Amino acid sequence: MGSSRTLVYSTAVVLVLLSSATTDEQHDVTLDFEFMQEIQKPDLRGMQRPLGYFLDEGLPDFKPRSFSGPPVLDYPVKFPLGRPTSENLQAICLDGDHRPRYPDSYFPKSGFGQQRRKASAVNKAESWFSTCCKRNQTWERDVVLCCATQAWELSIESFCEEDSSVKDRLYSCCSLRGSDRLNCFHNNAPNPNYKPTEILPVPPLPFTANFNFDPNTCQRTPVPKKVDITFPPGRPTANAIESLCGNQKLRPLYTVKCLPGLDYEWLAHQAKAINRIEKAFKQCCKKKQGVLNCADQKWREELNKFCLGKNGKEEDFHCCKGEGGNERYNCFQNASPDPHYNMTSANEELSLPKICNTHKMIKNKFPVGFPLKSFVNQCCLPISEQDKSLCFAQKLEEISGSLCLKRKSPPAVHHCCHMPSQEAPQCISKILMDAITKATKVLRHNKKKKCPYA
User: Fold this and answer.
1) Residue 304 backbone phi and psi in degrees, to 5
2) Tens digits of per-residue pLDDT, 75-124?
3) Rounded Cα–Cα distance for residues 61 and 76 (Å)
4) Residue 78 Cα to chain centre, angstroms
5) For 259, how many CA atoms within 13 A lie in the half-sphere containing its CB?
6) 216 to each of 127, 135, 140, 142, 210, how far by Cα in Å?
């Protein structure tokens, strides 16, 4: 029994001593680790950061990997970049030098492989964006966007190829394919709007990776078109009936074959209504009496038919919602862009340059008695109207002298030759203008139907 008590007592003493030693050892380890932190903490004043300081970040955090080794630095990279769009394209081009770049000196000599690859992808994309944006003055906006998009996609492809070629954890988005991969990168972007994050401009990095962009690979967006139709037509009135009938041949009729598809049925409906109204006006204007009443009745009938729409369903046009007839007709009259029928091509100013479009008609139907070939060949060039007018004035002076020297000249030209020398060119110019006027009227009369969407 005594020996048992002695054994228990001895064991207890040993345990107490061991517990005390362990506590002291832990205390010593803690002090040693804190000391290690102090002596191994680097001097941040000389550390290389990205080119530019982040506005929303301080210096890198110090995070010990474990108690068994020294602390390591975290090297943040603003990755990935967002997809270029029409909304962020301006920021991509204007604020490029206020987003970070990552020189080789930003990282330690070894380690941080994936962070390095992310930094390289950002550097590539930003460099290629700069290439696209430099052509902003000569390329259309759609082409610049196409260029930036291709640069972004190529930087992603390059990053995933490098990331998958090393024994490291693959970046999650790279495990996807096609549009899913691109969407993943875009959705992970910390700055998808490409806002500036650097206080001071960032100098560009020397970069050798080539980016060959062919503008012909881009699908061009069609130039936006606009509706070109005079609808609704104004209501015939006593003040407008003379212009309505007198200028009818100068007002356009419309074709609907040119319209893009079902989305423009409403425009086709308006074009057909105008064609029917103009056809009715033509019949009314031939009458010797009751022209105004006829035109007004046809106008009301056709617009009521317009509002009825297809299959008896009311047309979605605001004037068609009027409760009474007069309310509807007043609405159409107030909405008309040409209520008095005086906005037609009848007011088009004729000038000598119009001979460029009418010389064939003049030669065949209204000959002037002298060749027009020299006029057309020398003055009908892709130059401004003012330059064309100057060219024609000069040619008239030259031709008036040569024509009057001939023994046999056309009667009209012969008449001009008997005038003082300074008036002869004006006389010949009048002959040409008369021919242009006649030819223009014929061309207007034979005009084709116009597309209401131009």
Assistant:
1) -65, -40
2) 899 999 999 998 999 999 999 999 999 998 888 888 888 899 999 999 99
3) 10
4) 29
5) 19
6) 21, 15, 12, 12, 18
